[in-house]
Amino acid sequence: MISMLHPALRSYAGIPGYIIGWLIFLSAIVLFAYTIKKRYMLLRSGRPDPRFEHIGERIRSLFVYGIFQKRQPRYLWAGLIHIIIFWGFLILGLRSLDLLTQALGIAFIMPILEGRAGAFYTVLKEITELFVLFACIWAAGRRLLARPSRYEGSSHIEAYLVLGLISFLMITDMAYDGISLLILGGDHTGFAPGAGLFAGLFSGSGPSILKTGHALSFWLHIFSFLLFLCFLPMGKHFHIITALPNVFLRRLTKGSIKPARWDVSDLDELDTIGVSSVEDLTWKHILDLYSCTECGRCTDRCPAAASGRPLSPKKLTMKLRDHAYERYPVFGKGMAVKKKDDDEEEIEIPGGIIGEDEIWSCTTCGACEEECPVFIEYIDKIVDMRRRLIETARAPKAFNQVFMHLEKTGNPFGKPASKRSAWTKELEGIPVKILKENDEVDSLYFVDSYPSYDPRAQAVAGAIAKTMHLAGIDFGILGPKERDSGHQVRRMGEEGLFELLKEENREAMEGIKFKRIVTTDPHAFNALKKDYGLDFEILHYSVFFDSLVQKGLLRPEREVEPGIYAYHDPCYLGRHNRIYREPRRLLSALPGVRCVEMERSRDRSFCCGGGDVILWHEIAQEKQRPAALRIAMARDAGATALVTACPFCLIHFEDAIKTAGLEKEMRVIDLAELLVSTL
Amino acid sequence: MGDILVFVEHRSGSIREVSLQILSKADELARGLSGRLTAVVLAAKADFLSSDFSGRADRVIVLEDERLSDFDFTGTAAVISKIIKDERPSLVLMGHTPWGMDLGPALSVRTGLPLATDCVGVSLDGKKIKALRQLYGGKLFARVSFKDDSRGCLLTVRPGSFPIDASPGRQGDLVRIDVPKDLSASSSRFVEYVDTGAGEIDITQAELLVSIGRGVGEKERIEEIRELAGLMGGVLSCSRPVVDRGWLPKYHQVGTSGKSVKPKVYLALGISGAFQHIAGIAGAGTVIAVNKDKKAPIFRVADYGVVEDLFAFSDALKEELGK
Amino acid sequence: MDIVVCVKRVPFTQEVDLEVAKSGKSVVTDSLAHVINDWDGYAVEEAILLKERLGGVVIAVTVGSEDDEEVLRRALAMGADRAIRIDPGESSLDGSVVAKAIAAAIKGFSFDLVLTGVQADDDNQAVVGIMLAEILGLSHAAVVRGIEPKDGELKVRIELEGGIDEIRMVNLPALLTIQSGINEPRYVSVMGIRKAAKKEITVTGIKDLGLSDADLSPATEIEEVYLPPETGGAEMLSGDPSKLAQAVIEIMRRKGVAL
Questions:
Q1: Which of A415, A494, A495 minimises the CB distance to C15?
Q2: At a CB cut-off of 8 Å and minimum separation 6, what does A406 contact?
């Protein structure tokens, strides 16, 4: 039995331990506060962004996605490791705080940890420490040996450093407790495997070694704990502090696009639009940059990255973050300040930090945002950068004509508006009303541009009109007054043109009475629902027809062409609107359909290449079209027919099948066409 | 009254076809108007005038001066407007060429005579001149008359609008005149001609041209057609919009501002058929046109027409060729 | 370099089935979309490019109604500094009247260069530019597809036929009619055009320009317009793409093409 003072009560070179504790603590706090202040200044430089509505929903998601880490196990093993470490942090944080207060000579937490609760905590802590240590070794091992490709470009040094630091915290605490056991003398009151391990290690040591070990493990723990704290805001492990707020402050809606500015509703009042510099990002988008851990799940799921385009969502965040930190560094003058003195050429984000083709590579499919454990937003940032490129005439020249056509004729092809309803003339015996003011129908069928003009997509519009007719639905179309929904236009960054199209469509709808709007295209559905602010029931045809089948108003009777069918979730029906069930139920209601699921389906569906930019601007670096990759996935699932519910998917997939010469092995069909073939 | 004056264009030592076409038409009009037909040739040395040429007019006015070796606007406009003022012809004709486009409106301002440009037909209603023009890029025809042509009128004529007939054997008096002494200095000066058509391939020598137009839609898809051309042993060519957008180099361009071609077969994919393009394929043996728009003007001049998406057609063609 | 650029708003007729108006002298254009004349878009871009290189002021001019101000706003959004609209009121116009009106409107300005498009998409006349130059006594060149300022002159590239370009030195002040393809006109966003709407557009009545009745009377008159006959021309092939491909291959072989 050795009598020994607590390390904080001992003197070191004549200085009492708790004084040293206060010195370390205060220096750490000053450094930490200074860094946080710098980061806060950067955050403050951002533009307004309302993030405090629906507090209940936010608290709920803080628990679901923050505390309970719901998205982590989407990557099972990495997710488990993270959950262990995260929960370890929560549990062991208390212990570290306890030790810290001991070091400061104000051990107010210790009393709480006495008695039965204390005994329970000690056991919990002991087990957790071993788990965390094991998780750290596992994580480092994965990084070193398995080398998941999604970590490409991430900072490995920082990862190892932090894993090492966490392990060190575990080890120092276990050592401290182990030596304490020896010093206090065999008072094994509970289950303490970690402490026991170190007690065993030091059991033969003499008093001076024990004494030194005891003090060393204590102070090293305190020191590394504070070091860790100060280190956090400097690197990607800032997420330990910002991830929970980031989840709390997340976007609660999907599919919509942020307005040009949250604080200015009238575009005409803006001098510029979009993101040019860090200060043009919203404060929440800057918080996103703090919260990225470089885990790469976004890039792993990105169809643009998969097809060889120069976009990696992860690197986009990293580049923006590094640029922002360079402008607002913790130490020294940033570029934002320097500029005034030296009149340096300012680096623009779009075109400078983020390449133009990188910005145009995004299909806005939302796979990255669906995956991100901390809800980092990409689409709004990309669209804001595009807005800037459009505004400064740096969009691909091919867009000029497309936009001009949309402005002048309401469709991207420049075809006369008067021919917008020409497709209805091909439908024999199926009356399609062209609605005008004071008309009244049950359903307004919003066709949109591709199904109105593109010969392939016209077949889908025909199938929808025929189905509605057979179900006895009183419906009509806006005809020549209909304009493109503007969904793509908005996501390409031409906000003014989008507003114009929106107003024209709203005007065309005025004075017509209808109960609901039914759309061909998930993009139009999403635009009307999320971008237009309409007060009507808006349905994608797949949902509407599913309900008609459920009600018995539609009776699929004829067998479909034999084959194995796989349903492809269009991004703007699935991920952006969470409609997974209805199209599947409709598909399986068709006689003779045998279904398989592709590995990547539902919220992990793989974008066909998209309904916007790709149609008019090819990205040179693309190795393989996303649609071709998707066709391969369908074949891997054993499908012989790919069913989609979006005209763009249809066009891209047909193209990919032709390009690959797979006409005999695989066909693609729209759900509406398949449905109508059974009626 | 009733006299006709024709401004004759030449380049690099030969008379341009459009001038011969105009002289042929002018011969017919001069008979209708019972007037005298005069051709005006301005050159450094008019040694390229064949004996056959002189029979195309009653009188050939030749003005030789070093300064006029190429089209010199200042000199030409001064000389022609002086002749017009002196001789008061009922009708002045020239080609709707880049030079004619510069000269015609200027003469109209200087002489006060009314002008109709880019005429594809000229007819007489008694002694009144009626011009046939195209509007909206050939989508519409318009018959145009002059409010007051009592003092004469000016027409620029679209190249290729009239055939070149055999020389009618007019008198062909050669009249040489001197450059006016008070001729002002040129407002511009000729530097050189540049052949933009020189490139890696020569579309003028190809037996089969696979030609694309605006309908190809995007630069990247051109490769699919290049591949098709390769499969067929043909050469890739295109219409103006494709070059204007920078999708293909200029030496691929067929048409008045590009090359005139004479392949055995000209396969036009997604070309609507602007006249500038049509003029370039006059020498083609057989024209096969593929276009989605069944009203595309190309179908008016093609021998065979296919209404189909050009890529769907091209894919089918590749497949058939592969068999 | 101070530049005046002339623009026109024209109907957008791509794939439109034109309809002859009751008068038989024009087509119905009310229901058509209207755009900036294609060639004029290149002319404006060229003016802005020259301004960006050399400094100066760009003034856009059009002859037309209030609706036609749209093209002026577009020019302003592209970078023009001022805009002038000459309102023709009820006057009937042809190329020579338009040229006289523009000449009267701009003759008091100081400028080094006037740019116009080669021709307009609707009437395809190609007269206003050169007539304007002659009235104002400017040097001029038509169908220009390249401009290089050089020692107080302009080195211009004139597009001739058959892929031949002519290089010419033109004295200043000058007027050039601009051929399509000389540049790539920049896109101006809808928001950009709306913002340009805040810049003032000077409007002058055509009758207030001091022109005589003779000046304002068109020299030409359209007696009749008609749609081209639909028949004639190609023998149309039909069938699915593979049938069509076979037919075309057959024709090519028959015509002596070695496939």
A1: A415
A2: A412, A483, A484, A486, A489, A497, A501
